[in-house]
Each structure stands twice: as structure tokens, then as C-alpha cells.
Amino acid sequence: MIDEKFVIVGSLISVVGGLSYLIDVLKGKAQPNRVTWFLWATAPLLAFAAEVHKGVGWQSLMTFSAGLNPLLVLIASFFNKRAYWKLKKSDYIFGGIALTGLALWKITGEGNLAIAFSILADGMAAVPTVIKSWKFPKTESSLLYGLSSINALITLLTIKNWNFETYGFPIYFLSICTILFILVQFNLGRDRKSDKN
Fold it and tell me: Is 1 a member of any domain?
């Protein structure tokens, strides 16, 4: 166990990754899926509010940074016409499922359910970007996902009382960011296969 204030270090590491992705978006190098990034901003910020309500403490800072980075990336995507991903029907379907999860949280109003529905919504919102990262990894930037994984890992190492409100979102966040980092960094998808032809 490390001191819980190390969450601040983890969040700063994540913000550095967010700023690098934001720069890639402004340059047109990264092309975020706006449905995903909108929901990636919304779900963690709602989970952050629920965590604060449940008295989570310092660990909630990781969840806040998990929502802040996507919000900044989403805003940046409107400043460069080459910096967005053309949306498909499946993007809207997963976006709709994610919004349904957020609506269910609002209906229940219970803290742990809010966190669970936020994880569900964030996960459904991630599906289009996971697919895009598999098929077109060159349209993404791995640094954000790698540094966000470190942020989540640091947060998990600070937890003294293991209950859902403290570990739920960080475990999910570590998992999804690691998957995206691996897909993009190691170019595992279609781009790699087409490069060999």
C-alpha cells in the first residue's frame, strides 16, 4: 500500500497523456470518435460525483481525471476538421446503450449503482474506439492510454479499504486503458495486416 496522496501523481501523469492526445487531435494525427469521447467525459464525471457522495476521498481524483481528459479532447476535435472520426450506425447504438446506463443511474440515484452504471456506460462508449483501434490503430495515440493505465494502477495501490466505490472504476479504467494501449502501441489490427501486403 502506498500513501493515498500518490493519486495526485497518477492524475498528473494522466493529464500529461491527455495533453499529448489533445495536441495530436489539434494536429489531425489522432481522430477521436466523438460519441465515445463525449460519453467518456460524461460517465466518469458522473461516477466522480457519486464517489464524492459516497465519501471515497483521494481515489476519486483518478475518476475525475478520467472524465476531464476526454472532455478536453472532445472540445479540441471541433477545432480541426481532420480531427474526428466519421460516425457509423454502431457508434450511435453503443452510445445509446451508454446513455441508457446513465439514465438508469439517474433513476436509481444510489451511489454504488451510479458507479456501476457509469462503468457500464463508459464500457459501452469504449466499444467503438476499441473497434477503431483494432482496425485503424494509426488514428489513435497510445500515450494517453498508457499513462491513464499507470494512473489507475497507482490509484489501486493506494486503496486501504477495498469496497466497490473505491476499486470499481479504477479496475475498469485500468482494464480498458490497457486494452487500448496494447491495440494502438503494438498495431495489432487491420493496419498491420495491410502493411504486410
Answer: no
